[in-house]
């Protein structure tokens, strides 16, 4: 495997004016004819003419009308071409039906579809498949089959013909995209699709046709996605001044897809799970996620498409910024505190383990073998946190000024992180040299804070920051860490509003004077930096902040820390769950001035895998079985302590009338269902069974079924659920996952194995594979159950999937990334499975890079 380095970047050497592609679609033998106008980049003259290409059957290649000889080299071809402008014409044949990797042009349910990011275009034709080569594309699609009445590509539709008069005459459609783009944004879709259509008038009065294309029968699942799209278009105009730039915007839903969705210019392609929604089949969580993903892909039109990345090392330039923008959108559409807490929960669950384990890498990596392995929580979510910190440091007005300058200066460019930071430096006059370390230094900084009070009325906070070594980075330098702090007096009134302290040194103190009584600091409000905060705080102080903090994030965090510490003591010392936490929780839950969604989050507790990480950090070897027991004990303690309150929470938060996925009713359902989960621990599932019978939407149905499975009384409902939904793939994914998630640890492997024999376990479909194998690895106590059967089962399936779909296999290998946390027998068992996978003949580059990094 070849390693590619950021420092080795070299421009391509030629400029492309335009690209004309003709596709003659055929399930097993599609012809692709490319006509490309190249001209030398006269600044760069020292390199051979190289075009990428993989799995292409070469038919012909001509330069200025004359056949040309190609030299086949690793990953593509070289040719001797004139050192002057020339016309390239080539024809290749590809086999969409055989393409199970879902990169390039492939078939899903007899529909043609493409996925080109990051390096899939090279599986379509010979081309400089790199993001810094931008060109205008015109695409002609021909198909003789009657099951491709709809044929779409990027940009605006110019021509469409369905000739039914002459037998065998092809359907033809032509699309032109006026905006230069890199090949990774190319898309083509053809199939028997129906549209849910709408229109949007942009801020300058341009009329845009919008369509969501789906398989016949799914039309009723498009309305929510369409509303989300229009809200996103309006929000980007209002908040960032960004207007849409084509006459049409198409979204297509596809069942077989490696990730969530793809922002191809004017033709977004979505995993059907991330766009199709209806109250009967989708939970509130699904609706919220769909809204965020539609926004995310739409926002890429400016942050990613109009301004793209110079090379794949700059991936966070588009992904970090676009995640940040979609998080802002969700905060505006729904509750900002709830959105922030949810983002931090996701960061701690996915990014922290990555950054503290063998896969740790900088937000902007400096080398890779397979770029697909770097679409990570670090690039996306930590990348977004870095932008949030930048905004906190420069302030809202300067952030807007910098963004305006970014769009003005770099529209049409393939840009770098240096360009991005330069814009902020120019807009604000601020030196961001030290801040840039957030892009190059991996690992989660630990910030330790101590307090000193002097009787002259001064509180001094002393901060120390340090980051543990990570792969390839032994020494760490201090980073710029914005720490938002507020102060409360002993009565619980705020005496200092939130202020941003800028940590730049390894150790630094800040004093706050003029206080008549010792104030209580609320530190890292809003989780203003992606760090681990170590604060020596007793339960009484945490309970005080849980009761009084005016910052909703830190109020929630105080409760979280109480429950975390209670769980840790239960795991380590077998201690009973302490009453400070339960009393504080009760008071918050009783306060019905608080948003139900926020109160539902208060009822949550750290996951078992998070606890394993915390134990490891604290120098203990996590025992999955003890963690499981303590987590269950915590739920029992809550059920008992809140017994009087739970029925009220349940009944007061019932929502009647037509289902609405809006934040307010969804929040009520979340609180009622969190209460139901605790009630079910005491009533054997009676109330949950009632809810199951009455449910007219998936949120209520699934929540009730989960409670019943936990109570061990859901067999009949589980069968009824399967019967009711057997024809709906997305709902059946839930049915598969649910049984594993709610199995007892000792039954997890057997349940998983049984499900892999189910006739609907279509393991080549990434959603179904993830529904089963993703649930297996997420069940902490089941996955790490003694004996190591789960490790072996997952490894068996990864070995089987790898030749079919390396990208999904490699992502799923991350299940093993935390292996060094556990005891010696578990480490040995995991290590044996990693070795077994690594030893497979023909193992993909994707999986082999992941396994060798995880092994360390
Ligand atoms: N930019 C896209 C990332 C992506 C992807 C999507 C679907 C299938 C394979 C993919 N490889 C990379 C999605 C996004 O971040 O918006
Ligand atoms: Zn993205």
UniProtKB/TrEMBL annotation:
Domain of life: Bacteria
Entry GO MF terms: alanyl aminopeptidase activity; metallopeptidase activity; zinc ion binding
Domain Peptidase M1 membrane alanine aminopeptidase intervals: 224-438
Record family assignment: Belongs to the peptidase M1 family.
Full protein name: Aminopeptidase N
Claim: Protease is one of the keywords in the record: yes
Cofactor section: Zn(2+)
Domain Aminopeptidase N-like N-terminal, chain residue ranges per copy: 91-185
UniProt cross-references to Gene3D superfamilies, sorted A to Z: 2.60.40.1840, 3.30.2010.30, Neutral Protease Domain 2, Peptidase M1, alanyl aminopeptidase, C-terminal domain, tricorn interacting facor f3 domain
Biological-process GO terms, alphabetical: proteolysis
Keyword terms of this UniProt record: Aminopeptidase, Hydrolase, Metal-binding, Metalloprotease, Protease, Zinc
Signal peptide region: none
Pfam family, one: DUF3458_C
Key word Zinc present: yes
Stored InterPro entries: Aminopeptidase_N-like_N (IPR045357), Aminopeptidase_N-like_N_sf (IPR042097), PepN_Ig-like_sf (IPR038438), Peptidase_M1 (IPR001930), Peptidase_M1_dom (IPR014782), Peptidase_M1_pepN (IPR012779), Peptidase_M1_pepN_C (IPR024601), Peptidase_M1_pepN_C_sf (IPR037144)
Ranges where the Peptidase M1 alanyl aminopeptidase C-terminal domain occurs: 541-854
């Amino acid at each position: 495997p070849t390693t590619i380095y950021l420092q080795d970047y070299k421009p391509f050497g030629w400029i492309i004016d335009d690209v004309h592609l003709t596709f003659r679609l055929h399930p097993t033998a599609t012809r692709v004819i490319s006509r490309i106008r190249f001209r030398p980049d006269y600044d760069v003259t020292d390199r051979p003419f190289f075009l990428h290409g993989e799995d292409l059957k070469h038919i012909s290649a001509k330069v200025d009308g004359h056949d040309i000889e190609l030299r086949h080299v690793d990953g593509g071809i070289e040719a001797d071409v004139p050192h002057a402008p020339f016309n390239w014409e080539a024809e290749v044949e590809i086999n969409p039906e055989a393409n199970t990797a879902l990169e390039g042009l492939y078939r899903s349910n007899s529909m043609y579809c493409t996925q080109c990011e990051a390096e899939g275009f090279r599986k379509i034709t010979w081309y400089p498949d790199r993001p810094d080569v931008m060109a205008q594309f015109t695409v002609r699609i021909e198909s003789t089959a009657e099951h491709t009445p709809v044929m779409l590509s990027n940009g605006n539709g110019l021509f469409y013909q369905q000739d039914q008069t002459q037998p065998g005459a092809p359907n033809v459609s032509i699309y032109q995209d006026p905006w230069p783009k890199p090949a990774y944004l190319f898309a083509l879709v053809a199939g028997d699709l129906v549209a849910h259509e709408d229109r949007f008038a942009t801020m300058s009065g341009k009329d845009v046709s919008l369509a969501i294309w789906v398989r016949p029968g799914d039309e009723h699942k498009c309305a929510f996605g369409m509303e989300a799209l229009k809200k996103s278009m309006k929000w980007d105009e209002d908040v960032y001044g960004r207007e849409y730039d084509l006459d049409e915007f198409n979204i297509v839903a596809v069942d077989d897809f490696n990730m969530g969705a793809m922002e191809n210019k004017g033709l977004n392609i979505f995993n059907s799970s991330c766009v199709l929604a209806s109250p009967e089949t989708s939970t509130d969580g699904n609706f919220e996620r769909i809204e965020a993903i539609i926004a995310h892909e739409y926002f890429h039109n400016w942050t990613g498409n109009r301004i793209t990345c110079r090379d794949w090392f700059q991936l966070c330039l588009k992904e970090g910024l676009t995640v940040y923008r979609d998080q802002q959108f969700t905060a505006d559409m729904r509750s900002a505190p709830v959105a922030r807490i949810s983002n931090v929960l996701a960061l701690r669950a996915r990014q922290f383990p990555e950054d503290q384990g063998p896969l740790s890498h900088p937000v902007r990596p400096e080398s890779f073998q397979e770029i697909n392995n770097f679409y990570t929580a670090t690039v996306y979510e930590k990348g977004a946190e870095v932008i949030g910190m930048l905004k906190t440091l420069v302030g809202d007005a300067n952030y807007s000024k910098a963004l305006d300058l970014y769009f003005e200066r770099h529209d049409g460019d393939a840009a770098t992180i240096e360009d991005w930071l330069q814009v902020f430096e120019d807009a604000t006059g601020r030196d961001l040299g030290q801040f840039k370390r957030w892009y190059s230094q991996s690992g989660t900084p630990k910030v330790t804070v101590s307090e000193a009070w002097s009787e002259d009325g001064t509180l001094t906070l002393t901060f120390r920051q340090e980051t543990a070594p990570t792969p390839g980075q032994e020494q760490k330098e201090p980073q710029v860490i914005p720490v938002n702090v507020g102060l409360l007096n002993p009565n619980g009134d705020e005496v200092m509003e939130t202020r941003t302290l800028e940590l730049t040194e390894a150790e630094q103190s800040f004093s706050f004077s003029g206080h008549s009584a010792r104030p209580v600091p609320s530190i890292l409000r809003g989780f203003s930096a992606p760090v681990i905060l170590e604060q020596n705080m007793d339960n009484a102080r945490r309970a005080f902040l849980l009761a009084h903090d005016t910052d909703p994030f830190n109020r929630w965090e105080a409760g979280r820390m109480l429950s975390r510490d209670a769980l840790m003591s239960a795991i380590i010392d077998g201690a009973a769950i302490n009453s400070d936490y339960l009393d504080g929780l009760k008071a918050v839950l009783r306060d019905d001035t608080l948003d139900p969604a926020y109160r539902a989050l208060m009822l949550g507790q750290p996951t078992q895998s998070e606890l394993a990480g915390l134990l490891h950090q604290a120098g203990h070897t996590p025992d999955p079985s003890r963690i499981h027991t303590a987590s269950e004990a915590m739920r029992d303690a809550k059920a008992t302590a809140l017994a009087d309150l739970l029925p009220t929470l349940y009944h007061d938060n019932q929502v009647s009338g037509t289902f609405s996925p809006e934040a307010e009713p969804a929040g009520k359902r979340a609180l009622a269902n969190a209460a139901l989960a605790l009630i079910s621990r005491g009533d054997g599932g009676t109330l949950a069974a009632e809810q199951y019978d009455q449910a007219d939407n998936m949120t209520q149905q699934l929540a009730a079924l989960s409670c019943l499975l936990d109570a061990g009384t859901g067999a009949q409902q589980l069968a009824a659920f399967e019967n009711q939904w057997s024809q709906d793939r997305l709902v059946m994914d839930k049915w598969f996952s649910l049984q594993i998630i709610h199995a007892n640890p000792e039954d997890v492997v057997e349940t998983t194995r049984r499900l892999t024999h189910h006739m609907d376990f279509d393991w080549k479909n990434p959603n179904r594979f993830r529904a089963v194998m993703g649930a297996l690895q997420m069940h902490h106590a089941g996955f790490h159950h003694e004996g190591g059967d789960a490790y072996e089962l997952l490894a068996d399936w990864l070995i089987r999937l790898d030749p079919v779909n390396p990208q999904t296999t490699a992502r799923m290998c991350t299940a093993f990334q935390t292996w060094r946390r556990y005891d010696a027998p578990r480490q040995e068992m995991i290590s044996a499975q990693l070795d077994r996978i690594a030893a497979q003949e023909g193992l993909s580059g994707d999986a082999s890079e992941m396994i060798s990094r995880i092994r360390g």
